[in-house]
Design a protein that fits this description.
The chain has 223 residues and is an alpha/beta fold. Helix content is 42%, strand content 20%. The chain folds into 2 domains: 155 residues, Vaccinia Virus protein VP39 (Rossmann fold, 3-Layer(aba) Sandwich); 60 residues, no CATH class. The N and C termini lie far apart (43 Å). Bound molecules: S-adenosylmethionine.
Length: 223
């Protein structure tokens, strides 16, 4: 079995057994190889926009003997993929804005597919896109890897609740507030807002909200 990083292991753990998966931006195809080796998925479609990563993926398939269960495809996002037969889409390791543009070009992702999304940056942009464009964020969790904390979201098509500015940056407290890593995410968001607050009234407002959430967490933990 190949070994996944903590971030990718957290992504792979969200794939339901027996799922038919598309892994967008697969790079070395680590997640697809792990999913078929672990017997979670009978087959996976692994895509990337660039030929270099797909060459690395092909080498890993060869080395692990998984080429009969993983199909590689060069494409931008989900372009040219017939969605029939797939029930799960993973997009990990890209900026939230790139993920939003990939999903927006594939409206079929709002029709019953499970999305597993692990943005590297611009998480607020991704959450804003999802909640305003016919998706519901069904769960969130955090993964610590190489000194950084990464959010991992699951989402499906549906009508979302409204998200406030702080929720767009952090996730909803009822979904993420008890995660052991949440305090680190909150402190990082607070530090960023504190820097901008003297020049930006929106950031000043967020700062107040982050301080309110911090007091709430500290109060909950004092019992
Ligand atoms: C940092 S790697 C992430 C690899 C792996 N998914 C992970 O999370 O570790 C990002 C990969 O996404 C690919 N990529 C970037 N934009 C893309 C797009 N629009 N469509 C498909 N792949 C894309 C890049 O070529 C690269 O291989």
């Amino acid at each position: 079995m190949i070994r996944l990083s903590a971030r990718l292991a957290a992504v792979a753990a969200l794939v339901p057994p027996g799922a038919s998966v598309i892994d967008v931006g697969t790079d070395h195809a680590m997640v697809p190889v792990w999913l078929v080796q672990a017997g979670i998925c009978p087959h996976v479609l692994a895509t990337d926009i660039r030929p270099g990563p797909l060459r690395s993926a092909a080498a890993l398939l060869e080395r692990t003997g998984t080429g009969d269960r993983i199909r590689l495809m060069q494409t931008d996002g989900l372009a040219g993929i017939a969605p029939e037969g797939y029930d799960t889409v993973i997009i990990a390791g890209m900026g939230g804005e790139t993920m939003a543009s990939i999903l927006s070009a594939a409206p079929w992702t709002r029709s019953g597919v499970l999305l597993i999304l692990a943005p590297q940056s611009k998480q607020a942009q991704l959450r804003r896109f999802l909640v305003k464009n016919g998706y519901v964020i069904t769960a969130e969790r955090l993964a610590a890897d190489a000194g950084r904390v990464y959010p991992i979201l699951t989402a499906r098509g549906g009508v979302s609740l409204d998200y406030g500015e702080a929720e767009l940056h952090l996730g909803r407290l009822e979904q993420i507030g008890t995660d052991p890593l949440f305090g680190r995410v909150l402190d990082a968001a607070r530090a960023q807002a504190a820097k901008a607050a003297p020049f930006d009234s929106g950031a000043a407002q967020s700062l107040e909200e982050y301080d309110r959430i911090r007091r709430e967490l500290d109060h909950d933990h004092s019992f």
